[in-house]
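The passage that follows is intended for readers who have already worked through the single-chain material. We present the inputs for a multi-component assembly, then the predicted structure in tokenized form, and finally a short commentary. You are encouraged to pause after the input and sketch how you expect the pieces to fit together before reading on.
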Amino acid sequence: MKGSKVKSSTTSTSRKIITRILCIVLCLIIMFTLAGCWNYRSLNDITIVVGIALDKRDTNYILTFEIIDLIESSKETGVKTKVISTYGETIFDAIRNTKKKLANKLYFGYAYVMIICQDIAKEGIHEIMDFFLRDAEPRATLFMTVSKEKTAQELLLTDGVDSSLVAYNINFILKEDLKVTGSTLAVPFYKAYRAVKSKNAFALPALKVSEVLEGKKAIESDGIAIFDDNKLISFLPADQTKYFLYAINEIDGGLLEFTNFNKKIERITFEVFSCKTNLKHYYEDNQLKFTIKPYIKASIGEIMSITDVNLSYQDLIDIEHRAEDMLAERMKATVDYIRHRIGADVIGFEDYIYKNDLKLWKQIHENFKELLKSAEISIEPNIHIINTGLTKNF
Amino acid sequence: MINIKVKPKQQQQKINSNHLDSLKIEKSLDKNIQIINKLFKDVDTLITRIIEPNQFICNSGASSQNKQKLQKDTKKTAEGSNTQNAAQNSSSFESQNDNSPNKPPKYFIAHIDGLVDSFLVNENIIKPLLLFDHINSQLNPVDYIMNSLILINEIKKVNTYKDVVESITYGDTLLLIDGCEEALILNTKHFNIRAIDEPENEKSLAGPREGFTESIITNLSMIQRKVRSNELKCKFYKVGRQTHTQICICYIESLVNKDVLNLLYKRLDKIDIDGILDSNYLTEFIKDNPYSPFRTSGYTERPDVVVGKLLEGRIAILVDGSPDAITVPYLFIENFQNSEDYYLNFYYTSFARILRYIGFFLTVLVPAIYISLEAYHHEIIPTNLLVNMAIERTNVPLPAIVELVLLLLVFDILKETGIRMPSGVGQALSIVGALVIGQAAVDAKMIAAPMIIIVALTGITALLVPKMNAPIIYVRTFLLLLSAALGFVGFILGFAMVLTHLVNLHSFGISQFVSNRRLDMKTVKDIPIRAPWWKLKTRPFYLTHNVRRQGDQNERIESEK
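Having made your guess, compare it with the prediction:
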């Protein structure tokens, strides 16, 4: 009696265990077959795209991709790239058409830059952005650029100077520009899209082909392209872009160089460490007034003078004042150029008022463009020399 | 073999069916001899002997001449004397007693060859028995012999054959006295054991170098020597229907958690097995989660480790014949703790302990993460690495997951051959084999080079936590397969499942993983790092109620500085 009881209990527990194991196995089978491996794609099944160039011929889009050449690349030669081109009625169509030529599908997870030709830019860039919003692979941090050449393709066909990947080069040129030269603006995809969506004026970096050595062509950043209502309206050259960047508080470094500086000094270069620009507005009797106040911390990077200059404290103060005046003059010229000649509010005055003084914005936003053209803009830079930069004095 | 007709059938059946429990020692020596001979039939290592003191010699005291004669007598074989006696003397002790009340009785001794110290038996048992002059009829002869005659330190009175058999087979000597229903078990154990040396598997740079041997008494002596207190309790216990293996439960009375102790006894009582050859038999029987690959009891070959654990309120179980002691309860953290942690500088050992954690995570997670990255989440890999990995992967025939599973298998094969091979050769061969195979396989484009790195990293880091050798393999494979199927989703899913399992693990009712629901600085002192000794003022509170380990004196020394 007792024995049978024990036996029955053990069989029931073993049955329980068996059902439990079966449940787990079933779960795993269902999981693996329905959901599992849905996206298993080994690294040798993908073609890695690093750069995209968009051109338009007639009604077709021509897409050019810089892809990593896994066959030519090796430990000895380093990474090599190939450029392939395709066309289609839409962007997606064009991308899919590459599969006719390639064994693997394109993979956009490592695309660094997208270069847009002027034609597309002039027509408006919103239509080409949509695919990149929908597709899962391209990153939102992909840099958007505009080609100053006839086509965007040309830029990808240049030679990389310090890296064989042109897109990689562009990526670093743009990324570090604000800290080192301050001549262009790096705009990731999401920022560009936000500006397009809000129909504000915005800027994208412009790129051109330049010759580094005889016969060797390379990429060079060349100022910015200014968009208004998602269409390209003008380019701003590199030397003016710098003062534009001071105005919009984007500078993080770079140089300030002045010639014909003062009696003692012929040419001087400041190395900028940081810049903080404050914008203030006043509104009286239908008259807008803006004050742009860049506060710059810099050191003296170079003084070109005929004789040795011994800088006293007073000299430094004089230098500061003189530099402030010259910078104000140049910034004023740039701001006026943008405001009057280009006619786009790329500096973001309207945006600023919208964010800081909504009441005023409601009052004036309908005829803001006229108001801006007649607005009084004063620039009051404050340069603070934190050191003379002299490390060796014999 | 034995010519005896007086054999009740019932008794014979009992003997045959080995019901030793109910088999009591008879009053008649002859009957007892019969039973013994029957029990130990075909056990040729059993040595038996009848001792029949000569009354004359006994009464007149021992002279050197008579001694010689005696020794001659004793040279008779046991069997011969048995039959002789049985045939000659069928009368019982009482009848002899009637004739001469003070006449010493006949004795019978039995022991197993090789387990006893012959010199001890001769000098301390046989000699006094032969030379003893008269018996005091007032006293029970058993008590008299036990208390006043035999020169053996440990004597036990028994009355069943179960005890007799168990003792004889362990090197004790049986002494039967004619006319008594009790037998004496005399401790004459003497057998060769391995010398005490440093355990091969638990070498350490610092601290005691001695390790347990196969003899439980030697092992206990090593523990006792370290804890010179009556608080140290050693309870013997027998397990194994055939082997009757001695196990010993050691604990420190004032520190031990009584619930754990009761639970241990309960579990030990339930064990019904024919033999216990190693402590692992017990480990598996007393486990809380029998199917879990994770350990729920510790093992060590080092007496210092055992004492360290006893001092934290744990219980140690020693098994005769096994150099591994079991310690319970076992916390998950003990997988990463090492006796050396407490013997070396705490800065160094804290770092070493953190390394062990890192090693555990690396060995378990690296293959799964690698396969997730390789097959699903290319975005996360830095570009240069991705390009290099992709270059390596071109023209490789097998998918990454198959490669990885195969290589992990190969690594484990190499490891296993390394262990099983004759010493010295194994390691060298496996290293060379692995290097050559790995290099050649990459050169021949059979496998991708990063895979070798992953497998090597996984394999080597596994060696950092040797106590987790089994769970590591299963958890790693489980996570690997889930990651291969679902990428990071599977990885997180699997990790959560493993974590849930760990949190559910108990050792003797004590949660192994989460000792406390809140972060307690006291526990932090000995878990991620090893704080200096003067900071370790308390024992782990979940193991014992007696938490304080140090006095306040130390604090004062600190403040003086």
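Commentary: Chain B has a mean pLDDT of 81. DSSP finds 22 helices and twelve strands in chain B. How closely did your sketch match?
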